[in-house]
Write a structure and sequence with these properties.
The chain is built from 17 helices and 17 strands. By secondary structure, the protein is an alpha+beta fold.
């Protein structure tokens, strides 16, 4: 092995190579659980520089760790060994002109999601990916983790929103797959393969993304549900009644609402009734002629007649709609401000959400009586952010974090779901994957990794053991 830092300084210049104290902001993951001191941080300004960096690292036998906004929760974008170079895409932030006729746009991988939303707004177009970290998360990282977000049930996950990619492969070659077409069956679907690969197969440098017209009208409602089973049943009814106009279907619990209201005093809860379960519903249409309010009102009347909806209100303005959404979006922040927490990223078939939450509560209480459970997430696609806080009066989980993770992962697997719904495996969940995925599945993933990266220099220790 040779030290590539001299070559990297020459390739990148003083703005593109960081070491020592300058590299510290890139070293640790968002939860501050993973990350060791790398050789340095490469900040290439274009695809040619990315390719040169990857090639130099490969020749030196140095690991390459692609990093976007570093907002992941599984430690997949930081180094686990000192013989590594973090490749940050933070300088590659070009946004192309949107093509309204094709419904697409080309962007560099370092573009922040919120910046893309802002750039598209004047054109009457939207990229339908919304999540809590959109002010920091970058397109390359969203592709690497195959991000979902609150509208995944309608528009799909990142792999469904990526039309084309440009990728620097582990040997420093560049694959130009920047084709702005939805239908391309000329071989394996390589663009989808890189979605969820977490940087283990190459560095995504540019992408062609799918766009949609910005809705011309929206109808939103905040509902108090009788229980989780009622929320699931009402969600199924809404999917049938609202069809393609259903754009948001989010749930949260009284535990999460109470924590958010406790720690974020500017939040406003505007219903008269409190309950155990809440549902946030949103309909949207590109046509002002669709009677969204009528559709939603009719559904609410049905829910109240059935006894599943206890109370509810339709947003009367954009301001009130934003207030409704903040109650859901601030769930993680409210729990973070409460203190120590455990995060679990679960998915099950939507019809099994209530059963999972009920069974999970019993399992968790058996492990640590009184543990506070804050389930929230995306009812439409079955994604449950199953987060825990210690029992009242305790500051920690008595060393039982691993027990919670394994038990909940097993429960999700038994129900035909996943223990890694949105956040990927990273470094945190490799052992869990080995215990909850078949040998055949794990071997296929390992063979794929070996075929693309035979030297094992591309983000080693992520997704598969190395």
């Amino acid at each position: 092995m040779t030290d590539p830092t001299v070559a990297l300084r020459e390739i990148l210049g003083p703005k593109g190579w960081l070491s020592g104290d300058d590299a510290q902001p890139y070293r640790r993951d968002w939860l501050n659980r993973y990350g060791v001191e790398p050789l340095g941080v490469a900040r290439p300004a274009n695809t040619a520089e990315v390719a040169a960096v990857v090639k130099a690292c490969r020749e030196a036998g140095v690991a390459v760790i692609p990093q976007g906004g570093n907002t992941g929760l599984c430690g997949g974008a930081v180094a686990d060994q000192p013989n590594a170079v973090i490749v940050s895409l933070s300088r590659m932030t070009a946004i192309g002109e949107p093509d309204p006729e094709s419904g697409s746009i080309a962007v560099e991988a370092g573009v922040v999601l919120a910046a893309l939303h802002e750039a598209l707004d004047p054109h009457g177009l939207m990229f339908p990916m919304h999540l809590g970290a959109e002010g920091s998360a970058r397109i390359g990282g969203l592709i690497g983790t195959n991000a979902g977000g609150s509208q995944a049930f309608r528009y799909g996950m990142m792999q469904d929103l990526v039309l084309g990619l440009e990728v620097v492969t582990p040997d420093g070659s560049v694959w130009d797959g920047l084709r702005a077409v939805q239908k391309d069956n000329a071989g394996y679907q390589l663009r989808k393969l890189y979605c969820g690969a977490e940087g283990t197969l190459g560095v995504v440098t540019r992408a062609v993304l799918r766009l949609y017209p910005t809705p011309k009208q929206q109808a939103s409602a905040l509902l108090v549900m009788s229980d989780f089973a009622a929320a699931v049943s009402f969600g199924a009814y809404l999917r049938g009644e609202a069809g393609e106009f259903l754009a948001g279907l989010e749930f949260f619990s009284e535990v999460g609402l109470a924590l958010a209201l406790k720690h974020l005093p500017d939040l406003a809860y505007q219903l008269e009734t409190r309950g155990d379960v809440y549902l946030l519903v949103e309909l949207a249409s590109g046509s002002p002629r669709v009677p969204l309010d009528e559709i939603l009102n009719s559904a609410l009347e049905w829910g109240m007649e059935q006894g599943s909806v206890v109370d509810g209100a339709l947003a009367s303005s954009g301001t009130q709609r934003a207030q409704f959404w903040r109650l859901r979006e601030e769930q993680p922040e409210g729990q973070r401000l409460e203190g120590e927490q455990l995060k679990h990223d679960i998915s099950v078939p939507p019809g099994a959400i209530a059963r999972f939450i009920e069974a999970g509560a019993k399992i968790c209480d058996d492990i640590l009586p009184g543990v506070r459970i804050n389930p929230f997430g995306h009812l439409g696609d079955g994604n449950i952010h199953y987060n825990l806080s210690p029992p009242e009066g305790r500051a920690d989980f008595d060393g039982k974090a691993g027990q919670f993770a394994e038990a909940l992962a097993s429960l999700a697997t038994e129900m035909g779901g996943s223990f890694a719904a949105e956040h990927g495996l990273g470094r945190a969940k490799i052992a869990m994957a080995e215990r909850n995925r078949s040998i055949v599945e794990r071997e296929l993933i390992a063979r794929l990794k070996d075929a693309f990266d035979p030297q094992g220099t591309m983000n080693p220790g992520v997704l598969v053991r190395t």
